[in-house]
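Problem: given the chain below (348 residues), write out its structure.
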Amino acid sequence: YPSEFLMQKITEDNQIPVHLHVSVSLQYVAGLKGRALVEFFHSNIAEVENEELRHLMWSSVLFYKTPNVEVMSCVLLSTKAIYFLLDDSFIHADEHQSDFWNKENSDCENSSFHLSCCFVLKLNDLQSVNVGLFDQYFRITGHSADHIVTCLTRDSYNTHTFIQQLMAVLSLLARTPSPEPVDKDFYSEFGSKNTGKMENYELIHSSRVKFIYPNEEEIGDLAFLVAEKMDGLTNLPSLNILLYVLAFQVNHFEGSAQNTSSLQPKTLILTSSDLFLFDEDYISYPLPDFAKEPPKRDKYQLADGRRIRDLDRVLMGYQTYPQALTFVFDDVQNQDLMQNLTLDHFGE
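Solution.
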């Protein structure tokens, strides 16, 4: 019997982001309120009779086996497991998923039922949680490649709230205690004596689940990578990353029956001199322990980059969050106009 406060909180969180499209079955879930939502969880999703629903969140998710398919999910956290309620169309999005998703309800294709598949990650199978830069996303890792999921919240508040709720639920688990640690000094605890390089900051929960947060070196590595993409950079130490945010690039298609637009996930990075869009691999890094070879693509791949001084104007939409921004750059073939003025244009 959940408290009134918890039911009110879950009802408030049960809202699909307005810019993302979901199926009819997930729209039905988003329409449930209060006690109806809790009863839906117990009668359709929960695997154990005495588990409690503690938190609900809508988020885009990525699976390790299908890193190119981002799908909308209703994420439900209970005292026993994390449930990812997925759009049924996800199964048909990629033919390589047949071994990952065992589809048994093919005879329901043309019926009036709207199916959703539910991916379950038991809390007892949870090994680590990697939090992304600036809390824009987090990756949940289990014991195999099938049990790695990244939640692209694109929102530090949602990430923080989910991590806090997860830690609280993990505290209820009865696990055998790990052996008493040997007293270590700061440097042996957080650094490697061979290289002197600081490792990512790790918090080991009482349930023995690791919570891994990025350290300052990740920003430094990212700044170096960005600097490589900038031609003629003279002052590398002064390069600062001012903003890192997971966003969508809007591709507008005209000429169709109705003008449509698709949203392409991008990582936007703003420095003091340039604006970059990267295609980022959110799920393969850092490499899980069982990985036999590095991922097929780099963590960051440059999609577009423009100089701030070429920025002509920024158009802002009037709708509420998420805000749409249009950056208009001067369309100049040769970026350095000044260098042409040194040529003798008026001679023979």
